[in-house]
């Protein structure tokens, strides 16, 4: 395995929960931006402006921009923080965890869509760290099926509550140890992690499909985190270290 890929801990059984999910969607590249209607945070114009800022910052994939303009981020943060929902900042969501910056979500999802497996549309994706459910909602708009695993019971339930009104039939929420992945849904065209460890668990690489891509933060030599991209081919693994990021630590077990 590549240098950043290390051995994972002994598996701990994941606990599957009932499916949440969406109605069938048109191909992401063909969708039109949402109309700018409504007032305040409910206005689509607020999200369109955020997507425009993301585009100006270098996000180019039309499916990602549409997804970011479609998902109402303010519905995934605490009421005291809703006025910051469309700023490019991470926000606390409880239990020592955060919702990632919109720019980081968009960047990581765009990296997934740059994989060989995504050339004809992204298939099944595994998300490590559901958190409040925001990134799962974004992924639901660019992937055929999303499995999202969360180790903290309180956040798992919060995500279920946040996503229930969306009726996303292609999103499956799982309470379990994300370091072990979720073998029942494998193989995955993409794996994305919202937590960073010293190495990438073997389980993730094993569950990644040939042609698939893994995008995750990892601790680099100076103790800081950077984005790691791993592409899996029939010949093995290729990895790339990209820009610096700052995510919560990757942990094992269920709490």
Characteristics:
disordered N terminus; Rossmann fold; Protein-L-isoaspartate O-methyltransferase; PCMT; alpha/beta
Folded structure, characterized:
Helix 1 (44-56) packs antiparallel against helix 2. The protein has helices at residues 44-56, 62-70, 102-113, 134-139, 153-163, 202-207; strands spanning 15-20, 91-94, 97-99, 122-128, 143-150, 171-175, 188-193, 195-196, 208-219, 225-233, 236-245, 248-249. The strands form 3 sheets. It has an 8-stranded mixed sheet with strand order 1-6-5-4-7-9-10-11. It has a two-stranded antiparallel sheet with strand order 2-3. It has 255 residues and is α/β, with parallel strands linked by helices. The chain has a domain at 15-28 and 100-249: Rossmann fold (3-Layer(aba) Sandwich), CATH 3.40.50. It comes from Comamonas terrae. InterPro entries: PCMT, SAM-dependent_MTases_sf. This is Protein-L-isoaspartate O-methyltransferase.
């Amino acid at each position: 395995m590549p240098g950043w890929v290390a051995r994972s801990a002994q598996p701990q059984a994941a606990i599957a929960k009932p499916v949440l999910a969406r109605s069938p969607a048109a191909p992401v590249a063909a969708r039109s931006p949402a109309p700018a209607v409504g007032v305040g945070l409910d206005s689509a114009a607020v999200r369109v402006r955020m997507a425009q800022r993301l585009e100006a910052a270098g996000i180019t994939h039309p499916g990602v921009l549409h997804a970011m303009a479609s998902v109402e981020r303010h519905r995934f943060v605490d009421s005291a923080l809703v006025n910051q929902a469309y700023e490019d900042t991470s926000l606390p969501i409880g239990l020592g965890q955060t919702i990632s910056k919109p720019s980081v979500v968009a960047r990581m999802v765009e990296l997934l869509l740059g994989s060989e497996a995504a050339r004809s549309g992204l298939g099944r994706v595994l998300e490590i760290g559901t958190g409040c459910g925001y990134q799962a909602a974004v992924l639901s708009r660019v992937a055929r099926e999303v499995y999202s695993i969360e180790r903290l019971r309180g956040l798992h339930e919060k995500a279920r509550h946040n996503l229930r009104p969306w009726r996303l039939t292609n999103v499956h929420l799982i309470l379990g140890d994300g370091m072990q992945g979720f073998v029942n849904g494998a193989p995955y065209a993409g794996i994305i992690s919202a937590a960073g460890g010293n190495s990438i668990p073997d389980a993730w690489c094993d569950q990644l499909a040939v042609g698939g891509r893994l995008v995750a933060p990892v601790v680099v030599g100076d103790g800081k985190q950077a984005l790691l991209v791993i592409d899996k081919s029939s010949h093995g693994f290729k990895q790339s270290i990209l820009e610096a990021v700052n995510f919560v630590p990757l942990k094992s077990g269920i709490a």
